[in-house]
Amino acid sequence: MTRLLLAAVALLGGPALAKGKPLPSYPHALRCAALTEAAAKQVEPNSAEERLRFDRALYWGLAASEVARKAGLTSARFKQDQEEAGAAASAELAAPSAQAETELATCARQVPRLRRS
User: Fold this and answer.
1) What pLDDT is attached to residue 113?
2) Using the 8-state DSSP alphabet, how is residue 109 labeled?
3) What CA–CA distance (Å, rounded) separates 77 from 54?
4) Which of 1, 8, 9, 30 has the highest count of CB atoms within 10 angstroms of its CB?
5) How much is the pTM?
6) What is the pLDDT, as a whole number, of residue 19?
7) Long-range pairs of 70-76 with CB within 8 A, sequence gap ≥ 24
8) Alpha-carbon distance 55 to 114, whole Å?
9) How many CB atoms sit inside 10 A of residue 54's CB?
10) What tens digit of pLDDT does each residue of 43-76 get?
């Protein structure tokens, strides 16, 4: 997991930006982080699907954190935003909401492929 975390950090701060890809907007990153985290909690623990969903949630969580940091948001504000977005995403995916499922799929497609060793 440490390697995955380092790879995600490198992708956010290195190659993704080096290719001219700007960081996503804060609302988009926060929404994707919330949706991917909620989705990761919906599957069987220790399954391949759970690992894939965890990777996506990790990527978007780091992206949201980085965007918040660059925007000068306090950690308290970021944590509150995370909690509110997470509660909304969990409720929408549990409903289920077709719009939330579509947004989740979009967020998943935007995660770069990470090679596992």
Assistant:
1) 79
2) H
3) 24
4) 30
5) 0.81
6) 52
7) 70/23, 71/26, 73/26
8) 9
9) 18
10) 888 888 889 999 999 999 999 999 999 999 999 9
Give the amino acid at 114. L
Tokens of 115: 């090679």
107 in Cβ contact with 36 (< 8 Å): yes
**Six-digit token pair at 28?**
């988009």
> How do residues 21-44 score in pLDDT, each as one tens digit?
788 999 999 999 999 999 999 988
Write b or e for each residue in 87-109: b if 16 or more Cβ atoms lie within 10 A of its Cβ, otherwise e: eebbebbeeeeeebeebbeebbe
Contact status, residue 37 vs residue 89, Cβ threshold 8 Å? yes
Q: How many residues does the chain have?
A: 117
